[in-house]
Design a protein that fits this description.
heterotrimer; A mainly alpha; B alpha/beta; C mainly alpha; A: mainly alpha; MetI-like fold; elongated; C: mainly alpha; 14 helices; 0% strand; globular
């Protein structure tokens, strides 16, 4: 099957970002905290993308920033997925009071915007990577919960699941052999969307000064550090902003493509 | 000689299909069909799904549904060519010269507007008459179509009237602007059989009284025989046969038409009474959180190796009975005995043998098979689960079962999406057989299939019963199917069994009221049947 | 009681219950987290005696439930307590800022809502053709941008490349209405951009969903003109989903406003909240968080109620 151009671009860019994130230490031309340049220098051979508010190489900080941003976003979306999918499937398959309890709890958590909840929580908790990953992962797991529960409930009422129950199959076979293969494609695409959300969320928190703390570099924090330059026509803040946008758009393109591709596998999406 | 009302020549209809992951491709739905309809005549279009009958019907309005294109031939309505007409002249003729009655009136009425407003809308928008006049006309039609409270029913919203009534309202909507031609697209298919007969009679009377011409589209030959002057048989977008109604149903020429006519002729000799394998005694059940019983004191026996047909309309509780027997809905009262042992009411309390010996086949084979499993896995799993068969041994047994359902080699590696409707249902049968059951519950297993395919499935089930000595609990709403397969019959109505016994006894008068209504409502393939039944019912109600 | 009234009353009751539950989460949930308010204020070097005195003063030694009900009672009577950091009365500090926030969000909504519906209609009308594709491509991009990123692109564009606006948005009492409008033009543009994309995409989907109904085909087969079909058959059925989409997105606006205020240094509720999160001033954070949550819950409730009111099946029961 041919891959659409948009997906190819998305895949290449996403791959590049991942590569940069993994090998940041070897790629970056300057160490993280090397402030040997002048303030807001322009593009030059020594500093390809110029320097920031205290003379650090922007390219190097973007590369280190990719590592931190992508690591935190990936970790929190994995956590959100593990929690959300597990409890979502559990609620769908068990039903009854377990379903009621979990669903009402999620309703309550989703009754307030995630950013507000996060701000309230972060006003008490210490600001470190573990706390950030936990807070974002737990908040975002509510959306994964809703999706996986809905998908699993749709599949659980199918006659083939009933047939398996009438055959006497145990819960494991029903979840892993009957439901999961048919729920996979919407969940995979959802993972892409959750990851984007996590990137945007952690960037926003860092921008507000409540996310990743110096001396670590991350894209949202870099926008914050360099935003004052904008008034003097120094575009240093736009580079990390563009990096956030580029990562979000490329993952979006890949997620879109995965959704259409998996749904056209042999056997269709089921139902 | 004036032009015919509708003359279609060499009609070609195409659509674009978008197979996921492949480039779009053009498919031809109708290959050069000719059709002529004179004023005041009724032409029936009949065929299986995919025959192109609805597509042809809508072409009389120069309308292609969902991206369907009328690409070739000519369509003349009242002497004017309309296939290539511009949007403005099409708007002038749609709703004024031709109107349309769809299968699902419930979806075709705007839920946010009163019925009357929608019925008279065409008259007003085309400036045919004043509002008062149109409303009077509509009320007259409501009365003629036998709607209750014809003077006020127009003030109601679509969701406030029943499905059968809404179908009549849609007929009124189509007739109100006094068109030359009405297209009826399966107008009674979604209705229960006892409702269908009244709507059918109302439509027929309205057609006769108004003198309107009609295209009547349906898959049911017996239904179209009641209303049409002529019948055109279609298959795969081509005409198979065209003739007067009497000729088509009594003296069909083409083999395909002959097959369609004789499909309901299947009869099955009843087996003598024998000791039961399944006994349902005084079972009463209700769904959790509701306060009425969906099964009321139901008792039936099913002898080993025989077929008990459970007949009823939607809401009669026939499928609920299946759920009670399988343990999905534990009864609140009564007991179920199977092969000499009492079954636990609850699924969880049943032994592996209990589960193995009762198998189930569903109406929609599509949703009864996991789309991510191959046919081999689907049939092989019960072999593995119940008998521990593995590897080559399992594959050999899967192939045996495939041979038994007459599908042969090469299917084990395919996915359900690659099978036809009939093949899917056969695989479901093989999956049930794999467990070596004593009882198979068949829940409307032929209802979703075209008649000829359904016929093949019934024959297969009968042959398998003779080989394997398995009993069937056969749930259906279709009496022709009942006659074709059953040894015993239970008629259900509102959760209770109202008539029960050997097939010959159940189908022989004197009847109880409901069974009488049900049996007499099933369309029979003879001319004038509808008039006879209606006349008979009027006489009876006058007699009371 | 008319069944629809019953449903509306039920929905309002649910909204109030939710708000109560949220207040408990904001107060008690925060209590349960590791962290010590007194320690947060005095820092790591505080002596145990000083900590104990402060706890006593702030009432932190009472059981949490007692303090929750005291707090809740205060909230209900308009007493939000005092700021830990500067002792200012919170209700008073919020008053003016809430007005500013509502002014900003209101201006954004007034522009975004009609624009989103119009663009949604155009995209739905030309579904699959170039106007739809263009609108979809542009909105897909803006959806991928967090508010602050969009904000800096807009700032760079409109203050540096085409210098028509000031990069900070200062409003103060006594400013004329027009001067205020000019001052907040940039943040409004950013908010509109961000909300518009979501709102327009959902409007398009809602309208397309209605246009694919069988009753629209019925109307076409009656020979009605496209305008009549849209106006008489599509519109009455599309209004509920569209209004509900609008409300849900106004709720998004509540979040967007927090970030945008910080970007532009706009002295209002969002910035006030972020400032005090940084200062770990819990009473302020709880009070402002509750206000944002209440607005959000209210808008969601409104969306549901409009959906109930517009449903013909509920309005005209059998």
């Amino acid at each position: 099957m041919r891959m659409p151009l948009s997906a190819l671009i998305g895949l290449v860019l996403t791959g590049t970002f991942l590569f940069i994130a993994i090998f940041a230490q070897w790629i970056a031309p300057y160490p993280l905290d090397d402030s040997s340049g002048g303030q807001w220098e322009g593009f030059s051979a020594a500093h390809w993308l110029g320097t920031d508010t205290i003379g650090r190489d922007i390219l190097s900080r973007l590369i280190y920033g990719a590592q931190v941003t992508i690591f935190v976003a990936l970790a929190s979306s994995l956590l959100a997925f593990a929690l959300g999918a597990f409890f979502g499937f559990l609620a769908a398959v068990k039903g009854g009071w377990i379903d009621q309890l979990l669903s009402r709890l999620v309703d309550l958590m989703m009754a307030i915007p995630s950013l507000i909840v996060a701000l309230v929580m972060l006003s008490v908790l210490p600001l470190n990577l573990t706390v950030l990953i936990l807070v974002m992962g737990i908040l975002d797991s509510t959306r994964v919960f809703r999706l996986s529960r809905a998908v699993a409930v749709d599949i659980a009422v199918m006659d083939y699941v009933e047939a398996a129950r009438l055959r006497g199959e145990k819960g494991g076979w029903i979840i892993f052999r009957e439901i999961l293969p048919n729920a996979l494609s919407p969940l995979v695409a959802e993972f892409g969307l959750r990851f984007i959300f996590a990137v945007l969320f952690i960037s926003t928190l860092s921008f507000l000064g409540l996310g990743i703390q110096p001396p670590l570099a991350d894209w949202g924090g870099m926008v914050k550090e360099n935003k004052d330059g904008l008034i003097y026509g120094k575009s240093a803040a736009l580079l990390p902003a563009a990096a956030i946008a580029a990562l979000a758009i490329s993952v979006n393109l890949v997620a879109d493509w995965i959704l259409t591709r998996t749904s056209s596998l042999k056997g269709g999406r089921g139902g | 000689m004036a032009d015919p009302l509708l003359q279609i020549k060499g009609l070609v209809i195409e659509a674009t299909s978008y197979p996921p992951g492949e480039p779009p491709k053009t498919v031809t739905l109708v290959h050069g069909v000719d059709l002529t309809l004179e004023r005041g005549r009724v032409l029936g279009l009949i065929g299986e799904s995919g025959a192109g009958k609805s597509t042809i019907g809508l072409s009389a309005m120069a309308y292609g549904r969902g991206g369907v294109r009328l690409t070739g031939g000519t369509i003349h309505l009242n002497g004017r060519e309309i296939r290539l007409a511009d949007a403005r002249s099409l708007r002038r003729l749609r709703g004024r010269e031709v109107t349309y009655v769809s299968q699902s009136a419930a979806a075709s009425f705007n839920p946010a507007k009163q019925i009357m407003e929608q019925v008279i809308e065409t008259c007003l928008s085309h400036g045919l008459c004043s509002k008062a006049e149109a409303e009077a006309r509509a009320r007259g039609l409501f009365r003629k179509l036998g709607l209750p409270n014809p003077d006020t029913i127009g003030n109601r919203y679509p969701h406030q009237v029943s499905g059968g009534q809404l179908q009549r309202c849609m007929t009124a909507m189509a007739l109100c602007p006094k068109p030359d031609l009405v297209i009826f697209d399966e107008p009674t298919t979604a209705l229960d059989v006892t409702t269908q007969i009244d709507v059918l009679a109302a439509i027929k009377e309205a057609i006769r009284d108004t003198g309107v011409a009609a295209l009547y589209i349906t898959h049911d030959l017996a239904v179209v025989a009641q209303v049409a002057d002529e019948i055109m048989v279609l298959r795969h977008g081509r005409m198979v046969e065209l003739g007067e109604t009497g000729q088509i149903i009594h003296r069909p020429v083409q083999d395909y038409t002959k097959a369609l006519v004789s499909v309901r002729g299947l009869d099955h000799a009843e087996k003598p009474p024998a000791p039961p394998v399944l006994q349902v005694q005084n079972v009463t059940a209700r769904y959790r959180g509701t306060n009425f019983d969906v099964l009321k004191n139901v008792s039936i026996d099913l002898p080993a190796g025989q077929t008990l047909a459970v007949v009823g309309e939607s809401g009669s509780g026939k499928s609920t009975l299946a759920r009670a027997i399988t343990g999905l809905l534990p009864p609140s009262q009564g007991r179920i005995t199977f092969a000499g042992r009492e079954l636990s009411a609850d699924l969880a309390g049943r032994t592996k043998d209990d589960l193995r010996e009762i198998q189930m086949i569903y109406q929609m084979a599509d949703t009864a098979m996991n789309p991510r499993q191959t046919v081999g896995t689907i049939i092989g799993r019960p072999l593995e689960f119940y008998f521990g068969l593995k590897g080559a041994e399992r594959d050999r047994r899967v192939q045996e079962l495939l041979d038994q359902i007459e599908m042969g080699k090469g299917f084990a590696d395919r996915y359900p999406a690659e099978l036809s409707g009939g093949q899917k249902q056969r695989v479901c049968i093989a999956r049930a057989l794999a467990a070596k059951p004593k009882l198979i519950i068949c829940d409307e297993v032929t209802s979703a299939l075209d008649p000829l395919v359904a016929d093949g499935i019934l024959k297969l089930l009968l042959a398998l019963q003779a080989q394997e000595h398995v009993a069937y609990l056969f749930i259906t709403h279709d009496l022709a199917t009942v006659k074709a397969i059953s040894d015993k019959i239970a008629v259900m109505f509102k959760g209770a069994v109202v008539r029960y016994g050997q097939k010959s006894d159940v189908l022989t008068p004197p009847f109880d009221d409901y069974t009488d209504l049900l049996l007499s409502s099933v369309p029979e393939m003879e001319l004038g049947w509808l008039e006879q039944v209606i006349a008979h019912r009027k006489m009876e109600s006058a007699g009371n | 009681m008319h069944p629809i009234l019953k449903l509306v009353v039920q929905r309002i009751a649910l909204g109030l219950l939710l708000l109560l539950a949220v207040s408990a989460v904001i107060f008690l949930g925060v209590e349960a987290l590791p962290g010590d308010t007194a320690q947060a204020i005095l820092g790591q070097s505080a002596t145990p005696q000083a900590l104990e005195n402060l706890r006593e003063k702030l009432g932190l030694n009472e059981p949490p439930l007692t303090r929750y009900f005291t707090w809740l009672g205060g909230v209900l009577t308009g007493d939000l307590g005092k700021s830990l950091t500067n002792g200012v009365d919170i209700a008073q500090a919020i008053g003016q800022r809430l007005g500013n926030t509502l002014f900003l969000a209101g201006c954004a909504a007034v522009i975004a809502v009609p624009l989103a519906i119009l663009l949604g209609l155009i995209a739905a009308r030309y579904a699959g053709r170039w106007p739809d594709k263009l609108i979809s491509a542009v909105t897909l991009t803006t959806i991928s941008l967090p508010e602050f990123v969009a904000a800096y692109f807009v700032i760079f564009l409109l203050t540096q490349l085409f210098p028509v606006f000031q990069p900070v948005a200062m409003v103060f009492p006594g400013m004329s209405f027009w001067a205020k409008l000019h001052a907040i033009a940039l943040p409004v543009i950013v908010l509109v951009l961000v909300v518009l994309a979501h709102m327009m995409r959902m409007t398009r989907a809602a309208i397309l969903n209605v246009m694919q109904s069988a009753y629209i085909e019925t109307a076409e087969l009656k020979g009605l003109s496209p305008m009549t079909i849209i106006w008489k058959h599509a519109f009455p059925n599309a209004i509920a989903p569209v209004v509900s989409v609008v409300m849900l997105n106004l709720a998004y606006l509540v979040v967007g406003v927090v970030v945008v205020e910080v970007v532009f240094g706009y002295n209002a509720l969002g910035q006030y909240l972020v400032d005090h999160v940084t200062k770990r001033d819990l009473p302020v954070v709880q009070a402002v968080g509750l206000i944002f949550a209440a607005v959000y819950i209210f808008l969601n409730m409104l969306a549901d109620i409009i959906g109930i009111l517009a449903n013909p099946r509920l309005r005209h029961p059998k």
